[in-house]
Amino acid sequence: MWFASGEFRYWFQFGLFAILAIAAWRYGGGPERVLAGVLLWFSIAFPIANWFLGQWSDLSQLDTANAILDGVALIVSVAVALTANRVYPLWFAAFQVLAATAHLAKGLAQGTAALAYVVLYVGPSYCQIVILALGIWNHHRRVRKYGTYRAWRNSSSRLRATIPSNWPSG
Fold first, then answer.
1. Given this model, what pLDDT does residue 12 score?
2. Of 3, 51, 99, 158, which residue is 20 to 30 A from 66 by alpha carbon distance?
């Protein structure tokens, strides 16, 4: 049964990621485009990494290629979450933390069940799809209603604290 295989899941997710990337490019701002790129990163880099490393994990051991890809996605997701002028990237990054810690758990406890491992590192991507889709939709709705707004937070220069001359120094 083809639709129950991992191959179907791959192509289904790839299609969703591509649709989100097109929507992010058309309707989103910088954070939406970067996070859509993170999702596309999974679909494109995973088969290449597995081909290059010559391994497809049977899930009884740590999937090194996917752990590296999730680590890169974690770094990018957290960077976007901390600098974007939006709230939803925090949720996106939180689910990426779940996926990355699944690899850590598998590496530390080799007795982890294969099903638990796959649910922990594949499951968050479905939540990320929903989160990004809602983020693109909310961004587009806000731009239509209020006009454009900053995509990224500004970091102001550090102001030296000035102490009033009449401040008690006791």
1. 86
2. 3
Which amino acid belongs to residue 53?
L
CB contact at 8 A, 34 and 80: yes
pLDDT for residue 57: 59
- Give me the numbers of helices (H) and strands (E) for the chain, helices first please: 5, 0
Element (H, E) at 13: helix 6-27
**Contact at 8 Å (CB) between 118 and 105?**
no
Q: Whole-model pTM?
A: 0.80
CA distances from 8 to 1, 22, 60 (A): 10, 21, 21
Instruction: Tell me the C-alpha distance between 4 and 22, whole Å.
Output: 27
Q: Sign of torsion, CA 24 77 12 127?
A: negative
Q: Which helix (H) or strand (E) holds 93?
A: helix 88-108
Q: What is the dihedral sign for C-alpha 34, 96, 124, 135? A: negative
Question: With a cut of 50, which residues of the chain have pLDDT below it?
Answer: 1-2
Q: Are 132 and 32 in contact (CB under 8 A)?
A: yes
Confirm if 70 and 46 have CB atoms less than 8 A apart: no
